[in-house]
Amino acid sequence: MRVSSILFVFIVETSVKAAKTATRASSFAGSTTAAIFPPVGADTAANSLFPNPSVVGYAGPTITGDEAAVLQTAPAAPFVDSVFPLVEPQPLEAAPTASFDILTHLGSLSPFRSLPPTTFGVINASAVVPDDCTLTQVHLLHRHGARYPTIGANEVAAAVHAAATSEEGFEATGPLKFLNTWTYKLGAEILTPFGRSQMFNLGMGFRVKYGELLKEATELPVFRTLSEGFNKFPLSY
Ligand SMILES: *[C@@H]1O[C@H](CO)[C@@H](O)[C@H](O)[C@H]1NC(C)=O
């Protein structure tokens, strides 16, 4: 079993209470509900990510949709398996094997992906909230989206360059022929463009999965971050 180290999502479900079961249409069936955010009375002045509506211009006559709660209401949990717009590279002289997916072996560049809920050995585990339970709280802990390698990790490139600039030089042939004109093109430390989109999509995914929790909030959600790795998440949440 292999767990992607790029993002580690840790969700804690707490506080179970009985769900109501509707037997006939309610008087409000078919009426419109909409979300109100930030929570009424929440102090938004201290946080530039949540400016007061009056300073972001007239929103117009439109209303936003109501908050979603996919894990509470959908028949299946959403599963992250898209790597768009990445394309799996083809090995130069070997047929790709079904069992080896190089996109899961790219270290810090690997795309985040969901694992089956039973991955950690919990029998019959499911990401979907059971009918008789209600999700009341979510905690998310993660590091970063896809990022360039650590500074100094390009040792192979350094060795190739040292050989190329040495007195005797080198000439690569066969499958390694590309080395004759190859350059190292990765940056260091910061998120890749794909990594930035991961952060944005993660925030959007959380809004769709858990947005309904905001409706009972009396304070703004807490975003704690130390680096650029996190700053796209609140943009889409
Ligand atoms: C897992 O689910 C199956 C099918 O619903 C059920 O027969 C089995 O008892 C469950 N196992 C546990 C440990 O809950």
TrEMBL record:
Highest taxon of source: Eukaryota
Protein name: 3-phytase A
Keyword tags: Hydrolase, Signal
Keyword Cell inner membrane included in the entry's annotation: no
Gene Ontology MF terms in the entry: acid phosphatase activity
Organism this protein belongs to: Mycena indigotica
Signal peptide positions (record): 1-18
